[in-house]
Amino acid sequence: MKVATIDVESVLSQLTTNEKISLLSGSSFWHTTAIPRLGIPSLRMCDGPNGIRGVQHFNAVPASCLPCGTALGATWDQELVAAAGRLMGDEARVKGVHILLGPTVNIQRSPLGGRGFESYSEDPVLSGTLAAAQIRGTQSRSLAATIKHFVCNDLEHERKAVNVMVSERALREIYLLPFQIVLQESDPWALMTSYNKVNGIHASEDPKLLKQILYDEWGYRGMLMSNWFGTYSTSGAIKAGLDLEMPGPSTWRGFALRQALRCNKVTIDDVDARVRSVLRLVKHAVESGVPEMSLTEVGDVAAAMPVLRKLASSSIVLLKNEGRILPFQKDKKVAVIRPNVKIAVIHGGGSAIVTPSYAISPYEGIKRQVSSTLTYAKGADAHKQLPPMNGLLRTPSGKAGFLMKFYTEPPTSASRRLVDEVETDDTMVYLTDYRHELIADFLYYADLVAFFEPDVTGEYNFGLPVYGTGKLYVDGKMVVDNASRQTPGDSFWGAGTREEQGTIFLEAGRAYEIKVEFGTAPTQTKGGAWVYEHGRRWVAKAADQVVICVGLSEKWESEGFDRKDMDLPGFSDELTRRVASANLNTAVVIQSGTPVRMPWVDQVPAIIQAWYGGNEAGNAIADVLFGDVNPSGKLPLRFPVHLEDNPAFLKTIEYSCINCKRSQ
Q1: d(CA 623, CA 619)
Q2: In terms of Cα–Cα distance, which of 559, 479, 433, 515 is closest to 106?
Q3: What reactions does this protein catalyze (predicted)?
Q4: pTM of the prediction?
């Protein structure tokens, strides 16, 4: 039964107890439970903080990628951030999404927090004000925004066990304040709790945080949901005020909640209060007109482009411009130096990952601006893992990307039977949501086949991290073995291996077959870089102006782990020093979501902080470098010279194998 709206109290009175319980947990990873007989649809949620991924990790529908949270914070522009919210709302509608899981307003207490790039600022007022603007923009499209993660979730290490010890004053004046501002200025329809404990109690079952502060003091009447797998009790969470357990199927509701009702651990009034909150959100969703279980489509890319470019360019911060060497001149020789300057670094990792509808690298953006000679040198490796081969491969049929062939038997089986084929262009393959009717469980195999035609003759490095096992072949020769012996790493949210690498000599202009033999998780058995002296120095000396691109990526800043230090990876610092000594007209572009050390700061005349700029990162960087846009961004975070300069350094983390805790 389809309806135009619902009467919350009328529907509540018609629900059976089992139906009420079913509404208090998800039905799947991204959907809530439907009650068709009463016109209650299944609502679709999706990440995230900087783009509408949709409901697929594997072979995902392309999406607009907004600049990261700290980049939006650097704009200090409420109307511009509201435009970002409207853009996300528009794209969420075409992807059939009712509830957007963002924005994030956790305070960056340390520059090392893995998800620090997702939040706007360490200033609670700036953070809350901008988040409210973004939520107003999103909800103007009749979609729910979800403010998260409530509260004190600024650490990834042991994030489900860490106990945040915080004084009442710090809690109220710093960590709760952005949420309070958001609720006052935008009224988000949903709120997500955090994984961690606060003063000894998990946030998702803390009656002080949820019932006393949110409901009683602040009068919040939106829906409270857990973070994914962040519910830790049945009666405790229900009584504290947690409305929805995500994802489904339920662990703590369902049978466990029926038992709690039978033995009076919870009352039917407790359950009704939680169901009422869910139904209020269902009412909003029904009235939005977004169909239930609709197809996921690509948004209006052309309409998004100018907004994305404005967001990215407005976020860039001019940290230094000694001698006013910026802006550079478009008619003079320009050298661009960075190992991944031809690769678009557009977002951080974890929930922020999207498959972009397009992506502009710094090299491409600069190339579009200059009218004279543009040269390029790799400079130094700075990868935690080798950069992905997106856009460099061709399928056997000649399309961009590669072909995946799925089997239920390993490559050694003589009776191997092909069960599925998929063509995709994203070489970071997440199979968490891949399903096929002929594959009964999570044990299966896949061959990835593509052709690669190098444009330069020489030694090529190939890398392969896996959550499972894998071997990589080039024209039938095994180059990488990540199956025989494996080393645990932090790939795939910490569940996978480290990247194993291999080298092979390839000739320019020749097409090579690249093949990966992969087995899923049940098959699993579980340094530094080099400065390229040749080419780098003469490229820098021969140019009139030099751009050095350094920074981090989703491999260094991500949900699931924290950074170990503020250092740039590999030999980035040494590269910067050497290039600056070879050419005085050097500008350094830093792409990172949080602060990095700059030991060369006195040796270079110009520095800009470009963050993770989304689809238009490269164009935005070029706009600022060549004077088309004034760099008006302002730092939303302190950039300490050394990690020890951070005010919380001495008390940031206290680890214990028995009780992981952190004092504030």
Answers
A1: 6
A2: 559
A3: Hydrolysis of terminal, non-reducing beta-D-glucosyl residues with release of beta-D-glucose
A4: 0.81
